[in-house]
Amino acid sequence: MESKKFFPMFFDISQKNILVVGGGKIAARRIRTLLQFAERLTVLAPQFCEELLTIQKETQSQRLILIQSPFTSETENLLENMDIVLAATNCPEVNQRVVSICREKQILVNTADDKHACDFYFPSVIEYGNVVMGINSGGKDPGKVKEVRGLIEEILQK
């Protein structure tokens, strides 16, 4: 499969309806970043990791809605009003089902386990005053992204 380039675009997600399917460490890391830019997030998972529960305690409760349930045909209706969905479960079948439904409904979707199934990639985000930077390798080299982020942060601390 030919690798395609993704355009780095910044847009306002403050009023977007965003659903994260999954309650583990990857979901928590992405939720922590998204809450810097979004007014409200909904999270659907059968269980929530400690970090995610800590984030909920730190956040105003109306900003982070946790729904403790697996992704099933009964909970698929949560996708109806969503603008953006992140599939971050540890089950590839669930992630693929989320992607398939989002594609049918033309909802922007990202899945943590299959870079080829993503409409967008989740960047590493650095904020410096009023400047926001996103770093991404198109899923090809997360280690290089981490290295570049470290270099940028080191320069900004000087």
Question: Can you tell me about this structure?
Answer:
The protein has 158 residues and is of the alpha/beta class. 30% of the residues lie in helices and 20% in strands. The protein has four helices and seven strands. It has helices at residues 25-34, 50-58, 92-105, 142-156, and strands spanning 18-21, 41-45, 64-68, 84-87, 108-111, 124-128, 131-135. It has a five-stranded parallel beta sheet with strand order 3-2-1-4-5, with helices on both faces. The longest helix is centred in the last third of the chain and has 15 residues, at 142-156. The chain is globular and about 50 Å long.
Record keyword descriptors for this entry:
single chain, 5-stranded parallel beta sheet, alpha/beta, 158 residues, two-stranded antiparallel ribbon
Provide a brief overview of the structure.
With 158 residues, the chain is of the alpha/beta class.
Compute the CA-based radius of gyration. Answer: 16 Å
Subunit arrangement of the protein: single chain
- Put simply, the count of helices is 4
Low-confidence stretches: none
Mean pLDDT: 92
- In whole angstroms, the N-to-C terminal distance is 42 Å
Number of strands: 7
Strand arrangement within the widest β-sheet reads: 3-2-1-4-5
Strand-residue proportion = 15-25%
Order of SSEs: EHEHEEHEEEH
Main beta sheet: strand number and arrangement? Answer: 5 strands, parallel
Which of globular, elongated, flat, extended, rod-shaped describes the shape?
globular
Structural class: alpha/beta
- Estimate the helix proportion, in percent: 25-40%
